[in-house]
Amino acid sequence: KSIVVLLSGNGSNLQAIIDEISRQKINAKIVAVIANQKTAYGLIRAENAGIPAICIDHTSFASREDYDTQMASCINEFNPNLIVLAGFMRILTPAFVENYQGRILNIHPSLLPKYKGLQTHQRAIDAGDEEHGASVHFVTPELDGGPVVLQSKVPIFEQQDAQELADRVQQQERQMYPLVIKWFCEDRLKMIDNKAVLDNQIL
Ligand code: GRF
């Protein structure tokens, strides 16, 4: 299977996926990495792995629709089976998402449906939650609202700050995202009627 990864920043999830592919744990090829920021370190990780690294700077587009149209035409040149959002910090238009229905995955740093959007770690601490975590889900037009495939939990310790918590959550992310991508690439994971289905079981 072929994968296009979209990101905006560090790319530690991208790196985990690259590493699992090179260890032959995932039978797939990342055919392009696209960022909306030219400073995204994920672009350097892609180059180091010999993957085409492309920046489509969102500041040079007048509207979200224009940006997503350009993004889609770039993605379509690579004709991927799967689009992986790995820290891509832009909201995608419904038209974009519907065009790739069932073929876009995202990782979100909370136990969805809790804490959609930003500042998830601080919000979990402020709420006095005892646990927090990350979720991998299919992307639908509803922001952070698509069907969840897999969640991983971490405890929140007293006096833990948001950065420490984020580090622990991201450690989990780097384990769980490659696993979900592996399932997708083995045709075991699908989105059917807005539900995530693994090995013919609704999740
Ligand atoms: C991760 O915490 C992910 O959950 C969120 O953005 C962060 C990306 O980290 N969507 P990285 O760029 O993969 O290191």
Keywords:
203 residues, 6 helices, three-stranded antiparallel beta sheet, Rossmann fold, seven-stranded mixed beta sheet, alpha/beta, binds 5-O-phosphono-beta-D-ribofuranosylamine
Polypeptide structure, described:
The protein has a single domain, classed as Formyl transferase, N-terminal domain (Rossmann fold). The chain has 6 helices and 10 strands, in the order βαβαβαβαβαββαβββ. It has helices at residues 12-22, 41-48, 64-78, 94-99, 120-126, 162-185, and strands spanning 2-7, 29-35, 53-55, 82-85, 104-108, 131-138, 148-155, 189-192, 195-198, 201-202. A 7-stranded mixed β-sheet has the order 3-2-1-4-5-6-7, with helices on both faces. It has a 3-stranded antiparallel β-sheet with strand order 8-9-10. Helix 1 (12-22) packs parallel to helix 6 (162-185). The radius of gyration is 16 Å and the shape is globular. The model has no long low-confidence stretch (mean pLDDT 97). The chain binds 5-O-phosphono-beta-D-ribofuranosylamine (GRF). 5-O-phosphono-beta-D-ribofuranosylamine is lined by residues 7, 9-13, 42, 86-87, 107-109, 134, 170, 173. The active site is at 108 (proton donor).
